[in-house]
Write a structure and sequence with these properties.
The complex is a heterodimer. Chain A is mainly beta. Helices cover 0% and strands 58% of the residues of chain A. In chain A, strands 2, 4, 5, 9, 10 and 11 form a six-stranded mixed beta sheet that branches. By secondary structure, chain B is an all-beta fold. In chain B, strands 2, 4, 5, 6, 9, 10 and 11 form a seven-stranded mixed beta sheet that branches. In chain B, strands 1-3-8-7 form a four-stranded antiparallel beta sheet, with no helix packed on it. Chain B is globular, with a radius of gyration of 14 Å. Classes of the chains: A mainly beta, B mainly beta. At the A-B interface, strand 5, strand 9 and strand 10 of A face strand 5 of B.
Chain lengths: 112, 116
Amino acid sequence: GENVEQHPSTLSVQEGDSAVIKCTYSDSASNYFPWYKQELGKRPQLIIDIRSNVGEKKDQRIAVTLNKTAKHFSLHITETQPEDSAVYFCAVYNNAGNMLTFGGGTRLMVKP
Amino acid sequence: NAGVTQTPKFQVLKTGQSMTLQCAQDMNHNSMYWYRQDPGMGLRLIYYSASEGTTDKGEVPNGYNVSRLNKREFSLRLESAAPSQTSVYFCASTSMRGTSLSYEQYFGPGTRLTVT
């Protein structure tokens, strides 16, 4: 089955700095790569996603880049704010299994 | 639209007791999923249902059963609860947005289960 690895597991940045979280996956046929944000005690919510035919997607302060050859994709958050503090999960869609496989999560802490 | 709803929000069980977690979605989604999330951990898939009438095992199905009652409802049953099943359980459903090949997964609010 699909194997998704996410790094780092924790990330601490100063407010205003950038944060980058990286995920690697194993199945070259995977074609959809979302990122979810989970605040403490809340449900995961989609923040950005990218399809396999696109290399980069941006939405205000967040962006996702995809390298299909290397089988990795990254979440970039610029000008971080305290409200960006949360756990972020990457995921990979498995066409054959009709399911998402999640990475282990990254706890991002933004210090004011 | 209420989205994805789950009941109950909290539950405490004694070892060996049984219970059913309920999940419903009003978005006309075909696919529904059950995950568990242990403290400080990621989401692990227990079971899923790609469409009404079908169910499949995920990564951690032992100790659980599911029923896709109709298109809207997907329940998770613990027949004999064990302390290792203490976790937060999330139900989710998926839309496929036309030809955009996006599989956005919508999550319910979760059920916090403690087994003593």
